[in-house]
């Protein structure tokens, strides 16, 4: 959680210094949901996220260096600089992406869940099902794709957990004014799966619920819909001046900051001392600093990367008949070379 | 910034109420001298989002059954194009919708079919695809298949499109070509604030469903004198914005400013370029382009969307059909590359001034 917070704060700094650009959406305040859920997963489990995906990537195990480089658009980033802030993918850590479009990731997650169920039941590989977690926000719960996937998952009893990060706001639209029944967890039973509501600012409570839901999926009992009530401390994106939200509401949730609550809990229960926590924080600062340095020093992608990976075979598209990348053809800059 | 625009919007709306004409102005209408003087006095420097804001204010003022809706429109929208509308016209006419593009457009079609003017906003043109089904299968065919009993002419869909410098895959797309392939709807793209206000008012009042793409790059950057009164610009009429004799250039939206720079540079090399703003993509003004090509004998088309299957292909094919013997060089298309819109490589992907300049020279020296 602390890594997530420190990372996002550093992102904001780097953005305002002009090192990264584009639309960056920060996760401050919602760390408990990411940590609570993803830390219970195995490496083979899948995570599908939204555009607010930096911390999901970090929790799943993608190194901070790779995420920071991706944000800077460098070759060493997890997607080689192609995707940027909103599109974190990692084959190694089974992170199936950030999605700029709301709700687009949920059907993808459903497909991944079907694969793990098929692998176990038909191909008889492995002894328990790999679980897929689909993260999305409150605004997405009014979108058709969400409902279609709840139906599919319940129908086919897929090992998937739908995690709603209800932070009450979709850019400037309050969830309460956009939804006929604002209690999202109730939509689960309508499709035949359990719906659970949990306080998303408390990482231990989230972990309890996550354990139950993930356990259910792993045993093959089907999907669960978990609504986590959480809050984002910053604006929707770094370009959002965040004038619309009531300061009283912000203060209310700032008081329930997940990191501060967990710190208090740890110190009260004497699980660790203040000094030990400070050591952890210092280590994390070093990790984030190192990530920034690494990203700074990494090279920008070469121009040839622009034409790679449009189709499966780069030769038919990116590489011309003379064996060189088409973008190295001098006619390319004229716009008269055909690709 | 937002509050500053809100204040500005209110001040402008007061002056509009005092001085506006009563009926919608058409190009051929005779304007009284007194009003003309007033109009000349009351043009203000506005950027694109303020011009669109003014147009929306006027549209809602003049028709009590017109509505503006979309994601986040009531606080002004993410680009502040809808500032001040909710405060002035109320939540019944200017309201937020949940995040469902298909629902937004379908709902707009229903409103329009009942005789209302529905002005739907899609937050970014990249997000219009869930609504593509409703636009293509319902909006475009409504009048046709009901035998003119019902129509959704009152529907106007506004969406910001195009590159913005840092948009990446999903905040920079130019989907106009997809919609140009659909008979039954109109596609309109303005190039500047003064054009945008007139064209948007025409689109809203046009008896056909229209998709209005606004170049988001120009929202703040383009500043122009925009008349404060209610005026409409004709649809399906292209405009020659720069006269020339050696080569015709055709474009729309933000790309025109880049083409203009290329034309100025080409002038220094002695090439006289004629620049045409297409304005309405379908139904497009073939006559104006044809007349120009008959004069110059050469054509170059430029747009941000990928070159294969882009609208430039349609223009090229039609002009070749009509002017084959007059053409002195192949029709050149300087467009985006055939890849998804890139993030870091954006300057390399875009049809830049230099690419256009190179193509002008090679076409003229063919």
The average pLDDT score of chain A comes to 88
Query: Roughly how many Å apart are the termini of chain B?
Result: 50 Å
From the alpha-carbon coordinates, what is the Rg of chain A to the nearest angstrom? Answer: 21 Å
Class by SSE composition of chain A: alpha/beta
Helices and strands of chain B, in N-to-C order? HHEHEHEHEHHEHEHEHEEEHEEHEHEHH
Instruction: Give helix and strand order of chain A, one letter per element, not per position.
Output: HHEHHHEHEEEHHEHEHHH
The oligomeric status of these chains comes to heterodimer
Strand order of the largest sheet of chain A: 1-2-3-7-6
Architecture overview:
- The complex is a heterodimer of chains A (339) and B (366).
- In chain A, 40% of the residues lie in helices and 9% in strands.
- Chain A is α/β, with parallel strands linked by helices and 339 residues long.
- In chain A, a hairpin with a 2-residue loop joins strand 4 (169-170) and strand 5 (173-174).
- Residues 333-339 of chain A have low confidence and may be disordered.
- Chain B has 366 residues and is α/β, with parallel strands linked by helices.
- Chain B is built from 15 helices and 14 strands.
- In chain B, the strands form three sheets. In chain B, strands 3-2-4-5-7-6-12 form a seven-stranded mixed β-sheet, with helices on both faces. Chain B has a five-stranded mixed β-sheet with strand order 9-11-10-13-14, with helices on both faces.
- In chain B, helix 4 (85-89) links the parallel strand 2 and strand 3.
- In chain B, helix 1 (2-19) crosses helix 3 (48-62).
- Chain B is globular and about 60 Å long.
- The model of chain B is unreliable at 1-31 (pLDDT under 50).
